[in-house]
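Collaborator request log, item 7. Partner lab (contact: R.S.) asked for a structural prediction of ABC transporter permease to inform their binding assays.
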Amino acid sequence: MSVNSQIGNQDSTVASSVKRTPNFFVRWLRLLLKSKTGTFGFIIVFAVILVALFAKSLAPHDPKMINPAMMLKPPVWVDGGSSLHILGTDNLGRDILSRIIYGSQISLAVGISSVAFAGVIGVFVGLVAGYYGGFIDNILMRLVDSFLAIPTILFALVFLTIFGPSVPTLIVVLGITNWVQYARLVRGEVLSIKEREFVKAARSIGVRDCKIILRHLLPNVISPFIVISTLSVATTIILEASLSFLGLGIQPPTISWGGILSDGRDYVATSWWLATFPGMAITITVLAIIFLGDWLRDVLDPRDNH
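Returned to partner:
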């Protein structure tokens, strides 16, 4: 084959890839619009992400500003037309809406970061255990079984009590408690994929194990990993809120949804809005993430496509 023909083939490949790129997004958009729950989940999750990114511009008040004159004011309370608190104020006169907006930053950051941390560990362990098998597989899987035997909330409470509650510590402890599910999933996929012809062919021509794992196995386990990690973000947000509610998660003055719930638990009978609105924020966000994860599972899992 001549050099010109090779260049021509490369140009046609680039051109075809450029043409396929819009079609790829159009296809995914059509698949998303076909699912009502998936569309709802995507819109809510996208909106929450935008709120977290532009919290400073969207928050109507300083979320940490204490105003004794505005303590425990109900929603949409107006003081002479100068102070509007759409969701009311808390026991220190702080605006609930502003605190929920800023709390989305920490809740999303902890949820996504801990899932990413857990995913790196779990995918690595699953790839190694599934590919090499034998003695290595037995050791790694016994380690996985050991972590599964420990209650997640109990391990988190002990870990946070020893090292002290903070955002980095919370991300680490949530990542350590959640990596086992990724390891089991990836290992199961690798056990099946490594027996296929393209992997055997790569081995037969002397391709290194590291290159086989990165080029052939890893791309084939990304789809199920994305699905389970999306669903895990919802679980992690709930777990972070639970720990913050118990006083072992995010500590003041850092704002989180669980912390706002904890501040309002003593006023539920008299000031219902303190716990209701942050609880609704957690519920709606978690449901949206679950709906989006279910849609991704239906789209990315070929066994469920008809």
